[in-house]
Amino acid sequence: MSRRSLPVALLVIGTLLFSACSTSQGTAAPSTGGASAPAASAPTGSTEASGSPATASGKPISGSLMVGAKYGCKPIPCKPEGEGAADEIATTRYDVFAKNHPDVKIEFTEADFNAQQFLTAVAAGNPPDVIRMDRAIIGTYVAQGALDPLDTCISDFGIDMSQYREPAVAAVTVDGKVYGIPEFYDSRIILINDSVITEAGLKPEDIDTSNWDKLKSVNEKLLKKDGDKVTRIGFDPKLPEFLPLWAKANGASIVSDDGKTSQLEDPKVAEALDFAASLIKAHGTAAAFLDFRGNGKGGKDFFGPDNQFKEDTLGAMPMEQWYLNVLASNTPDEKIDFQPFKDKTGQPISFSGGSTWAIPSSAKNKDAACAFMKEITLPDTWFAAAQVRADKRKADKAPFTGVYTGNKLADEKIFGQLVNDQTAGAYLPGVQLVQQTSDVAFSLPPIAAAEEFQRIWQDAVNRVLNEGVSAQDALTQADGEAQNAIDSAQH
To answer: How far apart are CA 60 and CA 195, in angstroms?
Structure first.
C-alpha cells in the first residue's frame, strides 16, 4: 500500500478538502471536491496537556504513527488527490491530533480499508498502527485475531465509553471486550415526496410501516406504470439492504445477539421479506422495478438536482440520514416530509451502521494509536470539524444539516449550536427526526463471517425477487450456509 508522510506542522497549516457529505463507510456519497477552508485549531479540553501528552500512567506519546486511512493532500500546496480523498471533517480532526502531539510523526496509507491487504500486512507484522473500517465487518477480523481488544487502551487513556451511542459500542463488542472506538453513526428515517402523496390524496402520516395492510394499499396508490414499464416507484422498501430493518419491525433478528447463530430461517424473517418483496412486485416485476430504480429517473441522478424527488418518480422510501444533505444541497426548495420507520407495534425503530477505529494486533505504536482514536472522537474535536464544515457551507451559501457522529455528547453540541432552520432550511424536521430516532436504533452484533453472512442473506433476497423462490425456502437454505460460514470463521 502507498504511504505518504505528512509532517506535523504541515498537517496543521494545510488547507482542507470539501465533499458533498461526510458519512460512515459503506454509505458514503461521492466526493464533489470544491474550495478549501483553513484547518481548525485544537479544541478546548481536547487534550490532557500541551507539549507531548502522555498516557494516564505518564508514558509520553511519540514515535511514528501509521494511520490506515486517507488524508489526500500534499503538504504545499494542499490539493485534492481525486475522488475519495478525506474531507474537512476528517482532516480537521487529524490536524487537531497532530497539533496536540508534536512528537508523533503521522503517516497515512492513503487507502480505504482493504481486507486482503490488511490481513497480509498483519501476517507480515507491518500493518498500520490504527485503521478505519466498517463496524459491520469488524467481527471477521476479531475472529481471525487481527485486532487487539482495547481494554488496556480504554483504561490507560481514560476513554469514556459512555459518551458513545450504545448501538455503536455493541457493534464492536465481542464476548464483553471492546475492539473499536465508534466514529460516524448512520440511522434511517422515511423520506416522503410531498407532491406525490398530495396527488394521491394522502398525508405524510399515511406512510406508516407499522400497518402493513395499509402500506400495501398506499404503495399501490403512489406507484405508476406505463404498460410493463415502471414510471414511478410507490414505496421503495430498499431491498436487499434493509432486510434486517424489516425483520426487526416484525419482531425478529437475522442473527443472535452474540452474533454466533444465524436466525435467517425464523418464520418472522420470512414474513418480513415476503411483505417487503411484495411492495416491489406490485410494480409488475422485480426486474422492471430494479431497472427503473437503478437506471431510470429513480436513480440516474440520485445525487444531483434532477433526483427522484424533484422528478416525482418516487413516493417514499427509508434512507440513511446522510441523504438529507444531498437533497438539501441539490433541491433545497423541494417539499419533503419525514416519518420514523415503525415496528408492527407502532414503536419507532432504526437500523444503525457506521465506521470504527481499531488497532491491529501487530501494530507497532499502540499508545499513539489509542491516543489518536480518543482525540479524534472527542466532542470538542468533532465540534471543531463541524464548525469548519458549517462555515464552509455558509460561505458557499449552501445548507448545513449537521455531522452525525457516534458520540452522543458531540451530537448534542453540534445540533444544539450549529444546526437550525437557517442552516438546514426545510430539511430541519428531518434532521430533528434523525436525532430522535438515533436512540432507538439497533445494530447487528459482530459476526465472525460478517461479509460472507451479508452476501448470503442478500443473495437469498435476490432469489426471492428475481427467481420467484419463496422467502421461507430461500432463507432456510441461506440459514444453513450462513451458520456454516460463522462456525468455520470461529474456528
So the answer is: 60
Buried b (16+ CB within 10 A) or exposed e, 307-326: bbbbbbbbbbbbbbbbbbbb
Rounded to an integer, what is the distance from CA 336 to the centroid of its chain? 22
What cell does 293 get? Answer: 430504480
Yes or no: say if 293 and 236 are a contact pair by the CB < 8 Å rule. yes
Give the pairing type, strands 177-178 and 173-174.
antiparallel
> Rounded to the nearest 5 degrees, what angle is found at the Cα of 337, between the Cα atoms of 26 and 325?
40
Residue 467: which residues within 8 A CB-CB, separation 6 or more?
none
Domains of the chain: 4-182+355-432 (3.40.190.10), 188-351+448-490 (3.40.190.10)
Helices 450-467 and 267-281 meet at what angle, rounded to 10? 50
> By percentage, how much of the chain surpasses pLDDT 90?
81
- Assess contact for 36 and 80: CB atoms under 8 A: no
Distance, in Å, from the CA atom of 52 to the CA atom of 103, rounded to the nearest integer, reads: 6
List the grid coordinates of 302.
440520485
Query: Cis peptide leading into 240, omega within 30 of 0?
Result: yes
- If DSSP codes are grouped into helix, strand and coil, which group holds residue 427? helix
**What is the DSSP secondary-structure string of 115-160?**
HHHHHHHHHTT---SEEEEEGGGHHHHHHTT-B---HHHHHHTT--
- Which phi and psi angles does 341 have, rounded to 5°? -75, 130
Encode pLDDT of 189-223 as tens digits.
999 999 999 999 999 999 999 999 999 999 999 99
Can you tell me the distance from the alpha carbon of 76 to that of 191, in angstroms, rounded to the nearest whole number?
43
How does DSSP assign 168-179, residue by residue? Answer: HHHTTEETTEE-
Residue range 425-455, pLDDT digits in tens: 999 999 999 999 998 999 999 999 999 999 9
Amino acid, single-letter form, for residue 113: F
Place of cell 466514529: 183
In whole angstroms, give the CA distance from residue 156 to residue 160.
Answer: 11
Sequence letter at residue 432: Q
pTM for this predicted structure: 0.87
